[in-house]
Write a structure and sequence with these properties.
Blueprint: E1 8-10, E2 13-19, H1 22-31, E3 43-49, E4 55-60, E5 66-73, H2 75-93, E6 98-106, E7 111-115, H3 122-131, E8 135-138, E9 141-145, E10 150-152, E11 158-160, H4 162-168, E12 186-188, E13 196-197, E14 202-212, E15 217-221, H5 223-233, H6 237-240, H7 242-254, E16 257-262, H8 265-276
Parallel strand pairs: 2-3, 7-14, 8-13, 14-16
Antiparallel strand pairs: 1-2, 3-4, 4-5, 6-7, 6-8, 6-9, 9-10, 10-14, 11-12, 15-16
Amino acid sequence: MLPLSRTFAAWQFPFRFRTNDESLMRLVEWCFGDLPPADGPPFALSVERRPDDRYDLTLVHPDGTEEPCGAGRRGPALVELLCWEVNRRARATAAEGTVVHAAVLAGANGAVALCGESRSGKSTLTAAAARRGWRHLSDDLGLIDVQALTVAPYARPVMLREGGRRLLGVAPELPEGVERFFADDWFLPASALAAVAVHEPQPLVAIGLLSWGEPAAVEPLSRARTLHGLTLHSATLAHRGAAGFDDLVGLAEAVPGVQVSLGSADEVLDLLAPLVGAA
């Protein structure tokens, strides 16, 4: 095995990485490079490359307990599994908080959490904002402090499908020797697209609900519609029950909601720029 990577913090999930594959090590350190360093005993994501070029993933707990997470994966499937495992463990650390499925983008004024389902355009907007040098918090999950009205960064790798890369003209330079880990879905750090990765919570200035439609538009929402959208896109409401719903009510009352109709990504960002204080 190669030496362990540095320690990364995915919210309260601290982890390091180890493998016997040098190019995979370069890829992981690049992909997760926007995450801050972690304190405390870390978990270890351990990947063994087999002679047949398949990979086995094991999570090693701080006490040494080993937990198999996947066996016999090919390169692209392995990277997807790694990102999914980190996502899953990070979400578990925030199970008692208010987490929404959202791309979270920010400027000098603060952040907007753009809530949407899978394939709703969250990662495409995130990549477009990165190319404009906006502050990057997440392309997938937002952990909101309902009392402070802030969002905690979770700068996991941005996942861009082939259509999104083609639409944005994204062709980042990859680390040497990692092409075999990419197929349709690419995972890359937002900083590779020129985003500013931040590690401190950012003020939440708006909650956006994404929808497809022409032309691009950003229109105010009522508190009731904002609350309805938050309940649909909450990642922790089912677990937290009434307490979680009360927090969403408070959030809808305290933070303006907007309906974001997706024309082109740049048109949407032009409309959001004055709100967050970005170019």
